[in-house]
Amino acid sequence: MCRTLLQVSDLNCFIVDWIGGSMAMYTQAANNVRVVGAEVAYFIDYLRDHYSHPLSSIHLIGYSLGAQVAGEAGKRRPGIARISGLDPAGPYFEHTPPEVRLDPSDAVLVDIIHTDGPPTIVKFGLGGFGMSQLVGHLDFFPNGGQEQPGCAKSYLRLGDLDYVIDGIEEKMMCSHQRSIALFTQSILFPNGFVGYPGPSYKDFQAGAGFPCCNGSCAMMGYYADSYTKDPTSEVFFLNTGDVENLLRWRYRVMVNITGSMFVMGSFSISLCGKVGCSPQHIVHSGFIHSEKSYTALIDVEMDTHPVIQVEFIWHKEAIYVIQATLGATAIAVEHGPSRATYLLCGDEVTKEGIPQKLDPCTMY
């Protein structure tokens, strides 16, 4: 991560090696957080006293127990500019008093990425390694903050924690560790992880917070400090991909259909911009009615804003005696981050599996 930071910023990056304390049994490692936090606070004093480095220029980034270490350091040195908690460790910290866990009071800005944080009830075999509790000024929940794309769901049982910390079951921590990859990639893509405000992930999936307006959205990761509002306890949701391509940009599309009276099947679209065309994304599956409009939110692998072309394609799911044809007469595309809306028009119908290309007719 330090190498990535140095690609975009002129800064000093220090790595805290506390493997001697973190690779102990989990119960002991959790207790070592206070010792390591005190040592980090001492190092901050050294930077201040010998190099006149102000607290207002300190940014602590901590993963799992390391996030709790950062919180402990922040408690000991009030005025630290920022703490970024990458899926802060949940067991023995979830719903504890603020004095013993990461808390918004630990820095001027505390931003959190939750990736493996359903409520942890270790003795009943439920939960993940992170926290679901809101512990920052800005709390981000990519993919709902629980199971991440390409990862198996985390289940903890009594005794599992010490077993995992020894590294024997590291694959169980896939969702937990995804927070590191998300933050690291955010350094290189300032607009790549837009968080939309909303009361829950279910509401986000239904369109809550879309599009961004009047500074309502925030960037997850390194550029979270660009949030223009006065942060108190804000919650944001977004979808990401798997490790092959974590980036996603959210669009709302409305497709007007023409052609055969109705078809049982599905249709999808690909958005094209100056950087190329995205993969196909399904907009609707089921009965497709002619002269009807269909709306969907899609999370696209590349930022195609401004949209210069859309490709429409459909597939049937039943056998028809009469050859069916479908087409899109108009597709409206709204770009979530900028609120820019594009209208693309077509005047043809196609057979199953044959793409139809729609070009801009106006923008509003």
Which structural class fits the helix and strand makeup? alpha+beta
Strand content: 25-35%
- The average pLDDT score comes to 91
Cα-based radius of gyration, to the nearest Å = 24 Å
What is the number of helices?
Answer: 7
Fraction in helix: 10-25%
Descriptive notes:
With 364 residues, the chain is α+β, with helices and mostly antiparallel strands. The chain is 21% helix and 29% strand. The protein is built from seven helices and 16 strands. It has helices spanning 2-8, 19-22, 26-51, 65-76, 160-165, 174-188, 201-205; strands at 59-63, 82-86, 109-113, 138-142, 194-197, 218-219, 234-238, 249-259, 262-273, 276-277, 281-289, 293-300, 309-316, 326-335, 341-345, 356-363. Strands 8, 9, 10, 11, 12, 13, 14, 15 and 16 form a nine-stranded antiparallel β-sheet that branches. Strand 14 and strand 15 form a beta hairpin. It is elongated, with a radius of gyration of 24 Å. Mean pLDDT is 91; it is low at 120-125.
Brief overview, please?
The protein is of the alpha+beta class. The protein is 21% helix and 29% strand. The chain contains seven helices and 16 strands.
